[in-house]
Amino acid sequence: MNAQKVYAIASDRGFVKIGRSNDPDGRCAALRNQNPSDNLRLAHVAECPSFAPNVEKIAHQLLDAVRVKGEWFSATINEAIEAIQMAIEIVEGDATVPHEGRVSWTARISVPPPIQKALRKIAEEERVSVAYLIGNALTEFVTARSS
């Protein structure tokens, strides 16, 4: 059995379908036959060996605000591709599901023990997590550099 893939099919009417299939080309052809008036093209395919259902579900959740019906979204193909890529990162554990417009990324960083100790102390005093402190520090750094 072939591994499932998550795909994005673009319509010339400005809609994008995100789905999963072992044969995205065949799925696109079947949709063309069902909707001959639409000009559909297979715009993106992502290999998802064992986790395609989860990637598809999360990509749908990420685009839920622009859902038209079922698996069809009023989104650009780039927005659909970004949603699929982010969903893969979430499933693979490199990011967590967005909350209030923010994406939480899991970074593997090396912090020297004295800095770890200082961070733990500050976090305890402020009653926040170390991850929160690091996230805020990075946000401030990037914001300052972008200005």
Report on this structure.
The chain has 147 residues and is α+β, with helices and mostly antiparallel strands. It has 2 domains: 91 residues; 34 residues. It is built from 5 helices and 7 strands; from the N terminus they run ββαβαββαββαα. The protein has a 5-stranded antiparallel beta sheet with strand order 3-1-2-5-4, sandwiched between helices. The protein has a two-stranded antiparallel sheet with strand order 6-7. The longest helix has 17 residues. The chain is elongated, with a radius of gyration of 20 Å. The mean pLDDT is 82.
Largest sheet: 5 strands, antiparallel
- The DSSP helix count reads 5
Number of domains: 2
Distance between the termini: 51 Å
Shape: elongated
| Alpha-beta content class | alpha+beta
- Could you spell the SSE succession in H and E letters? EEHEHEEHEEHH
Radius of gyration: 20 Å
**Strand line-up of the largest beta sheet:** 3-1-2-5-4
Strands, helices and their partners?
Blueprint: E1 5-11, E2 16-21, H1 24-34, E3 40-47, H2 52-62, E4 67-69, E5 72-73, H3 77-92, E6 95-99, E7 102-105, H4 113-126, H5 130-146
Antiparallel strand pairs: 1-2, 1-3, 2-5, 4-5, 6-7
